[in-house]
Every structure is written in structure tokens, then in C-alpha cells.
């Protein structure tokens, strides 16, 4: 048995976070795709009894749940290259933005493809407002932590994999509203560890189409 | 100017977390009470522009926001006594339960006092279910981290200050459903740093009564 196993779903941005972090650290791992529609594996249900959700990282047989916590664990377990800043204040700042992204970004995007008409217009407006706040956190830096790609970049860029779907269903363009954030997206997507993991935007769009149908959303 | 300043509200369990952590570490700080109903201070709004919420901890003039992140910062900045375990796996486990509490517990309690009738019965049932899950995380240990009071205990015990209000509005008793968790509550409340910070349950009940009136909830 591999000492690092990821219970994965290709379309989950939360799984992508863990995969990008593992790539950054150069850790070899066994990827086990979960069939979320066909029934979850016994290993997933016993490893994550509270939520029953991917990603779960098993390290030497011990399960870790919740993507931001897993990425933090990866950073503490395999030291190089560091993803979080070394000073407590920088670490707290990084965790603040990661927490902001966790609380807001993916759900706000979900509100776009789950609605239509006036409700969707509100959802698009809310989503752009969140991106502007996030752009404020990025400021004029190349990456959220400064000059190098790190923790917050991983937490955020994984969700960008769904932006094409959000934009098409909401009929808007992120780059029309947040130029600095959009430049940061392009910068991250050129990175080998990110490019390797982030799936084709069209495949994600088709996945969201499928989700809409399954949930009876026209 | 004091080098540690807390922007505080006496009734906020999130502020209590920060105060208990500071007491545990023996850190002297200046407490500035915010008048949340009368208008927030300029310092609060500029220190926490994203949420505009207490608690904010200012350390040497630099602001920190979000209570769980602040408690983590306090633990990293003032090493003794440690609040989080030293091994990465133990830290990840602690963060998992802190995150679970953050996502679930206070909002579930809010659903009790904000509703009545059938909706309230469902809210009480949901709340007890969350407590049972949390009790599972505690297991047979004295504290969430094992033998000593630590990070998860601080995150959870602060919210216990509102339990009297939840119980009275919902007409139930926590100890009837979760005996081990209730024993843990009693153990924590005997601790000097906790007893000093947690307010009189009756005062909190009256505060929640006031909140109900202000929000037009009968």
C-alpha cells in the first residue's frame, strides 16, 4: 500500500488543491477516483465519517479531511518548498484569505449556475464583489504571499477551474471586472504544477451541465 | 499604546475565545469594548474592512481577524503553554474539529432561538446531532487534545456560554443527550482562565432576548 493515497474526484476544486500541493512538494501518491454518483467507497465513508466527502488524504493509513487543512498538513509534513510564510503574522494573513475563499467563492459561483433571471443577476453581482475583495488582498503582488506561489494561491486557483462555467452560465467575464486578479490567474495557470492538475474548462462546463440536469435546474 | 489590544464585545463567544487564549498564555492586553449597536469604531472598520466584526486583535498595531485564526496566531507567537499539538497530524485533527465547530455549532444554536414550533423542534434535533458528533471527537479523553486543555477546547467552550439560552428557548437539556460532552463542559468551566472570561449565563440569556426583540422575533 502506498503511504500517500488520495481519495479523489477529478472535477472537485477541493481535490485539485491537494493535488497541486502534492505536486509542489514533489510527493508521489496513489490516486483513487471515487465514483460519487455511483456510490462512495467504504474507505471514504470510514475515513471521513462526519462529511463523507472527497478529498481525503491517507498518510501512512491515517486519514485527513477538509482540503485547506490537508494542504496545511502537507506543508508542515514536507517542508520544501514552503507554502505558508514563516512568520506568524504572515501565516495568519494567509489563513484569513484562505478562509475567506472557503467561505465565499465556490458557493457564490454555485449561486450563478443554480439560478436564472433576476436571482442570477444578483448572484453575478455578488460573485464579482467577492472577486474584487480578493483582488484587494492580492494587491500589486505577483502572488498572494508576495513573490512566490504559495498557500493562498493553491486554495484560490483550484476554484478558478470552474470560472469558465460560472462565466458562461452567468454571461459575464471575470477579466472585465478584476484585471489584476485575472493577470494572477494567467500567471498561476502557466505554472507546471497547476497546469498539470487543472482540467480542461470545457470538461468542467459539461460536468456542471450534468449537475444542473441531475438537480432538475433548467 | 499597549502592544496587545482586543476590540471586544462581552457577549461574543468569538471574542471569548481570544480572551481565554490570552489568559492561558498570561498575556496582558488592553480591552476596548465595541458598541455594536451604537456604531462601530473607526479602528474596527479599518482593521477588519472585509467583515467589520469583532474580535480584532491588534499586536504592535497590526490587525488580526477571525477568532480561530487569532487563537492560532496567539499560540504561534507566545509558545508557552502550547495550545495545539506539536505533531502535524495532531494539529490537523485539532483544526478539523475547530473548523467543524466554526461551521456548525453557533449557527445551529441560532436556529433554535430564531424559530418556534415545528421549525424549532427540527433546530433542536439538529443541534443535538451536532453535539453528538462533537462528543464523538472528544471520545473518552478529558480534553479534545488529550490530557490537557488546548485549542479545540477554547474554540468550543466559548460557545457554551450561549447554551443556557439555547436550552431555555428550545426547552431541552444538553446533558440529557451528551453526558461525556457535558462532563467536559463542567471540567472546562472549573478552569480559572475559562471561569474568568465566560459571562453569567443569565446575562447572555437576556442579551439573546434583546436580540430577538431587535430582530422582531416573538
Q: Which terms would index this structure?
A:
4 strands; GST_C (chains A, B); Glutaredoxin; four-stranded mixed sheet; Glutathione S-transferase Yfyf (Class Pi), Chain A, domain 2; homodimer; globular; EC 2.5.1.18 (chains A, B); 58% helix; 218 residues; transferase (chains A, B); alpha+beta
- Which CATH architecture of the largest domain in chain A is right? Up-down Bundle
Point out poorly predicted stretches of chain A.
none
CATH class of the largest domain in chain A: Mainly Alpha
CATH fold descriptor of the largest domain in chain A: Glutathione S-transferase Yfyf (Class Pi), Chain A, domain 2
**Biggest β-sheet description of chain A:** 4 strands, mixed
Strand content of chain A: 5-15%
Oligomer classification: homodimer
Mind telling me the C-alpha Rg of chain A? 17 Å
Number of domains of chain A: 2
| Order of secondary-structure elements of chain A | EHEHEEHHHHHHHH
Number of helices of chain A: 10
- Rounded mean pLDDT of chain A is 96
The N- to C-terminal Cα distance of chain A equals: 44 Å
Largest interface: A-B, 21 and 21 residues
Strands ordered across the widest β-sheet of chain A = 2-1-3-4
Characterize the overall form of chain A.
globular
Q: Please state the structural category of chain A.
A: alpha+beta
* Strand tally of chain A: 4
Helix fraction of chain A, binned, reads 55-70%
